[in-house]
Amino acid sequence: MTMLTFPALVIRECDYAENDKLITLLTAERGKITVCAKGAKSLRNKDMACSQLLCYSEFTVRERGGYYTLSEASLIRQFFGLGRSLERNAVGSYVAEVTAEVCVENSDESEMLSLALNTLHMLSETDREPDLIKAVFELRCAAVTGFCPELSGCAICGKEDGRSYLDVMNGRLVCSACFNPEPGEAGAEELATARIILPLTEGLLNAMRYVVSCPPKRIFSFSVAEEEREDFSRVCEKYLINQLERSFPTLEFYHRIKAMSL
Ligand SMILES: [Zn+2]
User: Fold this and answer.
1) How far is the CA of 212 from the centre of ligand 1 (A)?
2) pLDDT, tens only, 230-243
3) If you measure from the C-alpha of residue 185 to the centroid of ligand 1, how many angstroms do you get, rounded to a whole number?
4) In angstroms, how far is CA 215 from the centroid of its own chain?
5) Is the pLDDT of residue 188 over 60?
């Protein structure tokens, strides 16, 4: 039996057996770890509070044969500001759900952990629009998990002419000249099989380039013109969801709340 101590973010929790709870933790160095909190209902209040969804805590766990059991926990940070609105809360849950989907066990997930914590901080402590925060998270998440779109220039001719299109399924740019190639021309066949093509203005393209390439701590240090925010959010969401080839209940919930508040 080994005792391990590490800081981790709780990204999933569910009841297990009569009195136990399974919590999924995201750690920087060990990736995703599922820990059994035995006798969850009889755990000391402190350990219970620290093992709730989206708490960032220092966990001590016992490891035996690849199974982990919670020994104790002490809270490092809780994102109370998520409770300011249903929308913020919903995006927070979505961050947890996506993170649990893309992160793996026994791997360095320091970039995803830092992205999740930065995103939760922005949602909880600032007044930036939840929709914009969500979009930045989605695009950067795609980049960190190996689905970074190639945005340097048109994938077919290499040029850039101001107005480009994002070929979502192939994660690449296509310029407007190559967008409608004559049959038989270079690229015609590839484009015929690409299913989702989204137009990008120069402003949108620059925002996307920034988010996929800036230093981790600077991902929210940019702005998108107000009239382009909705398009930016739509493109980032479509991109991530199509790369992961699934949707998320928390994302659908977020859209229902958003529709109600309009
Ligand atoms: Zn081109």
Assistant:
1) 21
2) 999 999 999 999 99
3) 12
4) 16
5) no
